[in-house]
Amino acid sequence: MRVAIVEGDGIGKEVIPVAVEVLDALDLPIEKVPLELGYGKWEKCGVAIDENDLEILKSCDCVLFGAITTPPDPNYKSVLLTIRKELDMYANIRPIKPLPGLIGVTGKNDFDFVIVRENTEGMYSSIEEIHDDVAYTKRVVSRKGSERIARSACKLAKERKNELTIVHKSNVLKSDTLFLGVCREVAASEGVEYGDMLVDAMAYSLMSYPEMYDVVVTTNLFGDILSDMSAALVGSLGLVPSANIGDKYAFFEPVHGSAPDIAGKGIANPIAAILSMKMMLEWMGYEREAVLVESAVEFSIRENLTTPDLGGSSSTSDVGKVIADHVRNN
Ligand code: NAI
Ligand code: MG
Asked: Per the database record, which ranges form the Isopropylmalate dehydrogenase-like domain (predicted)?
């Protein structure tokens, strides 16, 4: 397996080396291909990603990615959108599960759900028209796009409780009438139990009754917002991992961004990046190793070795070291 390692900017440069340290502790036959993308590259070369970078990414089986700072350039085209589209990684999988011993804003810890976010269209179509006094962004929902994300969500639901919640705003957006209809058809044909929720009501419901949900499927922007919001349920944005999966490639990244407010201080929580690497191990078929990484993360929390976002005083590298050592010794 060949893995592109993209640290990116800000805390990406702090949390990805830690995730790689834990990966190295497993001593697996994985070739790492470091690649610089993002704001740092843009400052040096005027582009955040180029054709050659895309070729390198395509030559790898998957990518472990940190985060990228959005450059202050009106013509800047998002690196992440480019990669997700070029490699056609249409399913963004974001598990929201509390870690033992940690609670988030609601004080609940009896939930375990996954947000499956459509990743290539919706509000992030990049079809935009900008004038001085008005700007348009085209929201694209296709049958093909909806069908394949619904299939991914149903596949996951079948491995779990077989329950799917389709999140949409079809009372206002005609594009979501199509999304809802296609998701219902797919769920019915796959034999998955399904219900649906309007996205605004869903935001309230996820905060109030997160235990009611298993697999949640939704369009691009709604999934982006609901997943950051759901991070508050588990206690920190620094805990939530994600996978972007296509038919050929996959791309693993923490849900958080480059966090310029804490970058360089050595206090970023590396767990989201480590758990993203764990999702990569699962995708590669290293199930046993994935379980080991998760238990090492749980060990660090039990030992109260946590970063300041969780109320602790450990540094990024302290947390990484205890997790890597635990992996090495078990
Ligand atoms: P952010 O996710 O970087 O930070 C939001 C808040 O959460 C900040 O207070 C930050 O300190 C905290 N936080 C995030 N990750 C943390 C961690 N691992 N440990 C402890 N605290 C953590 O979002 P923000 O500030 O809106 O965006 C910063 C930059 O990142 C922007 O340029 C944005 O465009 C970019 N971004 C990039 C993403 C990506 O590359 N996937 C995703 C989201 C934002
Ligand atoms: Mg986001």
From this structure: 2-323
Q: Is the dihedral of CA 274, 277, 283, 287 positive or negative?
A: negative
Catalytic-labelled residue, pool 138, 200, 247, 248? 200
Q: How far is CA 79 from CA 40, 56, 108, 236, 289, in A?
A: 12, 14, 36, 25, 30
- pTM confidence score: 0.93
**ipTM at complex level:** 0.97
- Residue 35: CB within 6 Å of ligand 1? no
Q: Is the CB of 271 within 6 Å of ligand 1?
A: no
Compute the distance between CA of residue 300 and CA of residue 37 in angstroms, rounded to an integer.
31
Ligand nearest to the CA of 79: 1
- For the chain, list the domains and their CATH numbers: 1-94+240-330 (3.40.718.10), 103-234 (3.40.718.10)
In three-state form (DSSP H/G/I as H, E/B as E, the rest C), the secondary structure along 250-307 is EEEEECCCCCCCCCCCCCCCCHHHHHHHHHHHHHHCCHHHHHHHHHHHHHHHHCCCCC
Whether ligand 1 lies within 6 angstroms of the CB of 256 is answered as yes
Q: Does 65 have pLDDT greater than 90? A: yes
Say if CB 317 and CB 294 are below 8 A apart: no
